TrEMBL record, chain A:
Gene3D superfamilies assigned to the protein according to its UniProt record, in alphabetical order: Leucine-rich Repeat Variant
Name the record gives this protein: Importin N-terminal domain-containing protein
InterPro entries: ARM-like (IPR011989), ARM-type_fold (IPR016024), HEAT_type_2 (IPR021133), IMB1_TNPO1-like_TPR (IPR058584), Importin-beta_N (IPR001494), Importin_beta (IPR040122)
PANTHER family tied to this protein: IMPORTIN BETA
TrEMBL record, chain B:
Keyword presence, Cytoplasm: yes
PANTHER family listed in its UniProt record: SNURPORTIN-1, SNURPORTIN1 RNUT1 PROTEIN RNA, U TRANSPORTER 1
Protein name (Swiss-Prot/TrEMBL): Snurportin-1
Localization, UniProt: Cytoplasm; Nucleus
Organism (species): Zophobas morio
Gene3D superfamilies for this protein: DNA ligase/mRNA capping enzyme (3.30.470.30)
Role description: Functions as an U snRNP-specific nuclear import adapter. Involved in the trimethylguanosine (m3G)-cap-dependent nuclear import of U snRNPs. Binds specifically to the terminal m3G-cap U snRNAs.
Amino acid sequence: MHPDTLQLIQILEKTVSPDKNELEQASTFLEQAAAANILEFIKTLSDILRHGSNSPVARMAAGLQLKNQLTSKDPNIKQLCQQRWLSAPEEIRNYVKKNVVGALGTETNRPSSAAQCVAYIAVTELPHHQWPDLIGTLVSNVVQPNSTEMQKEATLEAIGYICQEIDSDVLITQSNDILTAIIHGMRSTEPSNHVRFAATQALLNSLEFTKANFEKATERNFIMEVVCEATQSPDTQIKVAALQCLVKIMSLYYQYMEPYMGQALFPITLEAMKSDNDAVALQGIEFWSNVSDEEVDLAIEANEAADAGRPPTRVSRHYAKGALQFIVPILLQKLTKQEELDDEDDWNPSKAAGVCLMLLATCCENEIVPHVLPFIKENIKSENWRFRDASLMAFGSILGGLDNTTLKPLVEQAMPTLIELMYDSSVIVRDTAAWTFGRICEIIPEAAINENYLKPLLESLINGLKAEPRVAANVCWAFSGLAEAAYDAADTNEDTGAPDTYILSQYFEYIVQRLLETTDRPDGAQANLRPAAYEALMEMVKNSPKDCYVTVQKTTMVILERLQQVLQMETHITSHSDRSQFNDLQSLLCGTLQSVLRKVTPEDAPQISDAIMTAMLTMFNSNSCKSGGVQEDALMAVSTLVEVLGEGFLKYMDAFKPFLYIGLKNHQEYQVCGTAVGLTGDIFRALKLKALPYCDEIMTLLLENLGDQSVHRSVKPQILSVFGDIVLSIGPEFKKYLEVVLTTLAQASQAQVDRNDFDMIDYLNELREGVLDAYTGIIQGLKGDGPTPSPDVMILEPHIPFIVQFITVVAQDTVHSDATVAVAAGLVGDLCTAFGAPLLQLLDLEPINEMLAQGRRSGTSRTKTLANWATKELRKLKANSTTAVASW
Amino acid sequence: MSFTLEKKRHEFLQNQKEKRKQAFDEKRDLVHFFGEEGPELMECDAPNRRRSRKKVPFGYKLMGSEWFTEVPDDFQENWIIKLCPEGIRYLVVANKGITTCYYRNGRISFKFKSKLPGGNNEYAHKFTVLDCIYNKTTNTLFVYDVLAWNSVSLLHAEAHMRFFWIKSKFEENPEMCEINSQKNFNFVVMDYLPAECSIVQDKLFMPFIVNDTKVPFDGILFYHREGHYVFGRSPLVGWLKTFMIPEILHIDVDSSHLCSKPEDYQSIQQYLASKKKRKEEIPDSVIPYMYTFPCKNWQVGQK
């Protein structure tokens, strides 16, 4: 063996060393070896993996290293890895492929690392139609009678990984072969549980592209039989994986499940739900959650079809409704199996049962009531806290599905008991009671703000604010809902468009005081209590009527004071966790500031704006704004201030502008940059021509950002739209930027994206919306507000054919969004009003007319209105041109 | 935390977009533009969006009719007739300075400014509720009935009283008919006729012209003169399609009103029966799946 190979083996063995130094040495060595000659490195790794005489550790580590050269969790690095592999010489690739396929089944450790190497090469090559014989090789590995257990298992693992990672289109043509191998491994006659498990896992990953097989009754019967059999395996791993397959099959192939439902799926999943093994029970419950979800979707589809007067494409078989009487009792039993020391992140059958009940209620609506109500009545006052809690949980869970006429008396009847449970001896019960109030306020707020119960309810909630953090956090949520409910129910004053008073008015100040105290609780970091309390405070302020304004004013001052205090604490921060708590607090205060500012009257705003702006500037200057989150929240708070002050913001511009520019230059944290861009639009809208002194600098920064590759793409459409805001605000003053902006828009309008990627299609639409927004702003801004278009707009004349061409491209693109249709229609109308008759010939085109027709049918009213308006403007031009001809 | 931050960002961005749209639209003279706005997507009946559904203020609902399959004995004495052009039934509510057309199911169709009490800024604090049929070809809202006028409820007024009221209110203030002169969009109060076959026949042979356009009739409404306005179906309101009139009232109808007659139409009874049958043929979609339980031995397909 080559001495380098021997050294590499030794190094690989050290990658599992407990000695930290050895570990570091090994990883440095491996990095260097990869950097020195990557192809040679990969080749040698495949050799080490292939040869059975090497130690299992060395082989496993070699496989792992090899895999790391083939793929990565980071999508960009992954792409680089794949490109590098595809550009490697064919003989090297063949050599490595031969090694890794040959290694399948020769390893002694589980899971196989060779399987991963095979899979990641396959994932790279198969989409490019390379390695055509791979699937055949893998299949024969599994079905050949003389294959070893390890060989079958490793091969099925490889198939599973490939199915999981690859785009399902690539494998459709080979789905038969793959399925043959998988089903062969899954059969009950397969003696090895390892093989059966690997095969079941592979099936789970392959279900998406086996649609054609599910469409054929004989094949479907066979698959279903094998899966159902696997659910009966005494091996829990196999059982769970097979149940997972059933869950997924139910969503993917609902329409084919009828023959299996009564005889197989129902008894199997019912049995699974009852299991004492949590993993098995969870899959049983998941199955019915999934059925409910699916049937809710089908109900929506049926409604839509009925509205449109056509039959639905798929129909619900109402499996959930029929199963209620059998599954609800099991779910209720599972609810009583709560963990005493609950960890929020833990998922267990008791929590899953709650969610399943919620979904069943949404799906079956009122019909669930008789199955749940007796349990609730019997157990709500039980001696055993588990039963009290379970019946509360059941009550809270089903609320969402019932109609108001059923729900309202039910909740009103339960109110006194629910209030009592807020004082329960068990913290878990109190927690659930508070959560139930949160649900009630959200789902049937009119029952919560019922005058008969309001006072004791508020007392119990206020009391709950002092309870354990988890209880208090749920109470905060209830207050958020209560505030909104009370505000919605209040009578609106027709002159102001807002209510003068509401049912909470007399308690308002007291509640706000208690919430402010809650935000200050020393244990506020637990159970998300502090954010929940601030959130409740924001909702209270947002939903406050006129007669609570004094309290809003006071709260504004408290928040401002707190902000100032917090900023002084800055210097005392030492630890990392202090810093993060401190940052969170600043973000929350900025958020609360926004909600109070929105309520402040235009007369009061200027009186507090100096203090607010001083605090904000201190914050921008401090270290906190090195954290993107805080910087973003601060920029949003300034945005609200701009909105409230309007032109009055001008006096802060000189002091504030450095921070706006810092934000615009924050390419690293693109959300900050995006927020700064949005704020720029606000500033122009508010200051209009008075923003002119800052315009050169801002335009320079925006244009730089557009041209900069390191600026995240999501910011760019926003910048284009903000060009529209700017020109609309400064009018003809924009002319000096016009040439460069038009060039930029022309470039942006040429953008092309990968059309297989939905995110990129969204992005394309956003980008086009931005371009169209900018054109709209330019035309409207230059046209002016006079009764006839200002001559300034004529500078655009040479660009009109290009703009129209772009509208046509958008119109013809089948992936255009409703939002782009709206902006494009608006632009068509604007072009007509700005340029008049000559545009008729340019705009009266088939694609544009078709787009307008589509817009007129849109479900969004603005799109509709704009499309109608544009059509009318076009017609006007047409009418004028015919009159002209007639009179001539 | 990250979830709320994501939500905040989304709201911030949406807010920017809204402000921009508003700024653009302000320059577009859309304020009086009468768009045919359909139901908002957000108001669909998805069960989890229960709360976002818009409701008709004060809970008004349209009154429904029964098939007028038999002529009652007191026909001539106690019944009033209104002819109905083709169109969509709307509940028109003028309130808070805006006039809103609601579909039968309570969804908003479109809004506009009208001169009705409550329908414009001058009388914003008043409200008026009308029962109308909107005919698209003529862009006209035909006023049939009144539920409330100038904040006075007329629900408990008898039919003949309501019809007199609405007719005289529009006659006193003819400008109320105008909605948008540019688009010829207007209100027309529908005449009411005594229940006399000869008069109905004459009316059905006279071309019904609105905004210079001939409008075909879709049917006839029969109101008992003492009937109150009720929400939902009332036995004191009857309805016939035009093609049923010869059969029930034994009068002739101008052929221009018969275009909606089904090819296989034989009689009103047969028509109603087949309509009912068609309804039954639509699979009743709420029958739950029947499980045979308990079921111990499960099996799949044929082995």
